[in-house]
């Protein structure tokens, strides 16, 4: 290798090493880690909401067997489920406040519809005694708890990421590489989605 070639090779290696150090020092690698963590936390939120949506057809059919004339309530739950499952829940939603808001609204509507269904079910002692209904009730209660935990983890993870985006000097890296603040659950919607439907009929 000639001296010129060796010098060029050395300059390239030094440039790469310096670039790596600068990117690491300015938070670039932390952005990668926190971005992936927020996506993983979001995935768990979506997974638990899907678990809830999967329980609903069986729940509606069981209630229908005892209270078929409660047509309006049963249809409201079915519509709310259809609306909630039609919202795209890809990781890109995390970077789109409007899409995130739409997702929240759909889940809030479904929570409200489920609460109304449980109030209707309270009127039917035979339904409350049905083994299938009690099993579904237990699964729904567990799922609502999982949703609460997953949502809380997501909120904490996104808060950590958003601080990274906004603080100095990592905010410069964020601007340079297009990292933006991610939406979280809003105060106005939090009440609707954080209140699990009343599913305890044992009292």
Summarize this entry quickly:
With about 200 residues, this protein is mainly α.
Please provide a written account of the structure.
This protein is mostly helical and 203 residues long. It is 79% helix and 0% strand. The protein has helices at 3-25, 28-67, 71-86, 97-121, 125-129, 131-166, 170-177, 187-194. Helix 2 runs antiparallel to helix 6, helix 3 (71-86) packs antiparallel against helix 4 and helix 4 (97-121) packs parallel to helix 8. It holds the Pfam family LemA. It is found in: Membrane.
- Please tell me how large the radius of gyration is: 24 Å
For the termini, the CA-CA separation is 85 Å
- Average of the residue pLDDT scores: 82
Tally of separate helices: 8
Low-confidence parts, pLDDT < 50 over ≥5 residues?
Answer: 20-24, 192-203
Helical residues, percent: over 70%
**The biggest beta sheet, please?**
none
Helix and strand succession?
HHHHHHHH
Shape: elongated
Q: In percent, how much strand structure appears in the residues?
A: under 5%
Task: Compute the number of strand runs.
Answer: 0
Coarse structural class: mainly alpha
Signal peptide: 1-24
Main location: membrane
Membrane topology: Single-pass membrane protein
Keywords: Membrane, Signal, Transmembrane, Transmembrane helix
Task: Spell out the blueprint of helices and strands.
Layout: H1 3-25, H2 28-67, H3 71-86, H4 97-121, H5 125-129, H6 131-166, H7 170-177, H8 187-194
Helix pairs in contact: 2-3, 2-4, 2-6, 3-4, 4-8
């Amino acid at each position: 290798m000639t001296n010129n070639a060796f010098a060029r090779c050395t300059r390239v290696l030094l440039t790469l090493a310096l670039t790596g150090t600068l990117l690491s020092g300015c938070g670039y690698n932390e952005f990668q880690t926190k971005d992936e963590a927020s996506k993983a936390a979001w995935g768990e939120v979506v997974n638990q909401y899907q678990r809830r949506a999967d329980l609903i057809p069986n729940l509606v059919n069981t209630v229908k067997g005892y209270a078929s004339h409660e047509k309006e309530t049963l249809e409201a739950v079915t519509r709310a489920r259809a609306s909630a499952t039609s919202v795209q829940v890809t990781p890109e939603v995390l970077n789109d406040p409007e899409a995130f808001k739409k997702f929240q609204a759909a889940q809030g509507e479904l929570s409200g519809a489920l609460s109304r269904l449980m109030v209707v079910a309270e009127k039917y002692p035979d339904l409350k005694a049905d083994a299938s209904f009690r099993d579904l009730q237990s699964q729904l209660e567990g799922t609502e708890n999982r949703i609460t935990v997953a949502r809380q983890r997501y909120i904490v993870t996104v808060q950590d990421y958003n601080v990274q985006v906004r603080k100095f000097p990592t905010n410069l890296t964020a601007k340079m590489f297009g990292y933006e603040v991610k939406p979280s659950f809003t105060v106005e919607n939090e009440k609707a989605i954080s209140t699990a439907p009343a599913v305890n009929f044992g009292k």
